[in-house]
Each structure stands twice: as C-alpha cells, then as structure tokens.
Specification:
This protein is of the alpha/beta class. Helices cover 37% and strands 23% of the residues. The protein contains 6 helices and 7 strands, in the order βαβαβαβαβαββα. The protein has a 7-stranded mixed β-sheet, covered by helices on one side. Helix 5 crosses helix 6. It starts with a strand and ends with a helix. The mean pLDDT is 96.
C-alpha cells in the first residue's frame, strides 16, 4: 500500500478527485495545508483522513517550518508527496529526502506558463493574454527548480472564444487536472513509472 500525503492550500478539488478515484494500492494517509481555513482540510476530515495545518506563520523562521513539515511526513511513513494546489515553496532538503517521490499538478502544458509567479488564475490570465488556442495541465516530479522536474503526464484543453480566466481554470480542472493527477498516482503506485 502506497501511503501518500496531499499538500494543499485551498479548496481541495484535486484532493477530491484523488479521493473519488479510489486508486488501487494507494492510501491517502495525510492531508496538510498551510492555511487553517482551507476547505481541503474539511474534505479530508469528512472522509476520515488525518488533516493538519502546518503553516510558515506558526514558526519564527522558515527553516523551522520546513523541518516540521518534513518531520510530519516521516512520522506518518509517507511514501509519495502530492502537491495539489500547494502555494508554499518546499525546501531543498525535502526535495532531496523525497527524490522522485514528490509530484505536482500544474495548470498549463509545461514549459508554457510555468515557473516563478505562475500559479492559480495567473496561469490562465497569461494563456488568454498570449492568445493560445490550447492549454492544459501537467503532472511532473518536483526537483529543486520551479515547475522544472520531469514530466509524467500532460493533457491538452481547448481554449474557447469568450473564455475568462475563471471559465478556463474550471475547464482545465475538469478536463485535465482531475483526470491526470489520479492517473499519475496510479502509475507510480502500480509500477508504471
């Protein structure tokens, strides 16, 4: 059984997609948010999953936050860390300790609209401003860079006339993110990667 931790900052729609997928050989052991008011924590608790807030605001120094997060993952025997809308940079130490065992979902087709400053609606605003006809989502391994790790899966989504950033964001979630994130976890759990 692959024990995973899902790290989130907001509503947890990708967490819900993982829960709904009932992936064979996978147990969501832990959900962690940096935001005590994140609805993702409520989703987890309602599903009987251990849910914790570990926030940089709770610590005097950023290093102490990183140490606490890493210690929590180790204490819960986490084998795979899933960043699902987690808006906090993780430490290089965590990347080293969980090498090729941290994945992230990003709401574009990397290498487009990724890296520092590209998250949430900002990604979709940039795609619309550029005038692209196709966008999508990417699941990738996390390395020391921002959105630079090896790509696991991508799924394209059409950009339609009249799209707003909010409409496009919803379509990318529904047609791409909620499908490829559980698929990538299943591939890892069942030896497909």
């Amino acid at each position: 059984m692959l024990k995973i931790a899902v790290l989130v900052s907001g509503g947890g729609t990708n967490l819900q997609a993982i829960m709904d997928a009932n992936i064979p050989g996978v147990k969501i052991e832990l959900v962690v948010s940096n935001n005590a008011n994140a609805y993702a924590l409520t989703r987890a608790k309602n599903a009987g999953i251990k849910a914790l807030c570990i926030s940089p605001k709770q610590y005097e120094r950023r290093e102490l936050f990183h140490e606490a997060l890493l210690a929590c993952l180790k204490e819960n025997d986490i084998a795979l860390v899933v960043l699902a809308g987690y808006l906090v940079n993780i430490s290089e130490q965590m990347v080293r300790e969980y090498k090729n065992r941290i994945i992230n979902i990003h709401p574009s087709l990397i290498p487009s609209f990724c890296g520092k400053g590209y998250y949430g609606l900002k990604v979709h605003e940039a795609a619309l401003a550029r005038g692209v006809k196709v966008t999508g989502a990417t699941v990738h391994f996390v390395d020391e860079g921002t959105d630079t790790g090896p790509i696991i899966l991508q799924k394209a989504v059409e950009v339609k006339a009249g799209d707003t950033p909010e409409i496009l964001q919803r379509r990318v979630m529904e047609e791409a993110e909620w499908k490829i994130l559980p698929q990538a976890i299943a591939m890892i759990a069942n030896g497909g990667i």
